[in-house]
Amino acid sequence: MCYIVGNKTSHDYLTWPEAEKKCQRIGNNGHLVSIHSQSQQNFIRSLQRRRESIPMWIGLNDLGTEANYKWTDESTYNYSNWASGQPDNYFRKEDCIHLVVGTGTWNDNNCHENKYSYICKAYNGMCIYAPLFIFKILHII
């Protein structure tokens, strides 16, 4: 399994749909990352901190039905780490989830107006995808 972290400069940030498409182009069932436990959350948070704590898209969203959260990789939504007061669907326009700067907690935000970095997860033994920041994980956390 590989975790691929998007570039850290703001001119390389993507909207949530753009980030998900980029993750899918990696191949090997690549998607924005899904998180299913506190240990996975801690690992993903460590990746965010390596990028100077910038906001990062993850694969959770409620694009289909409000408050019915789903992961882009179709895995079960069985863990959450929402920031205080979240999700709030501010102005009824927030359907995509990102990691909050400084805490790594989750916030819903506008999928199409905001551009952030991102974290992909792919099931790829080779983990070759330059120039992104790549971590090869031998075991599922």
TrEMBL record:
Q: Which domain of life is it from?
A: Eukaryota
* Chain ranges passing through the membrane: none
Q: Name one GO biological process term.
A: immune response
Q: Which PROSITE patterns match?
A: C_TYPE_LECTIN_1, C_TYPE_LECTIN_2
* Cross-referenced SUPFAM superfamilies: C-type lectin-like
Which InterPro entries does the record cross-reference, listed alphabetically? C-type_lectin-like (IPR001304), C-type_lectin-like/link_sf (IPR016186), C-type_lectin/snaclec_domain (IPR050111), C-type_lectin_CS (IPR018378), CTDL_fold (IPR016187), Eosinophil_major_basic (IPR002352)
What's this protein's name? Neurocan core
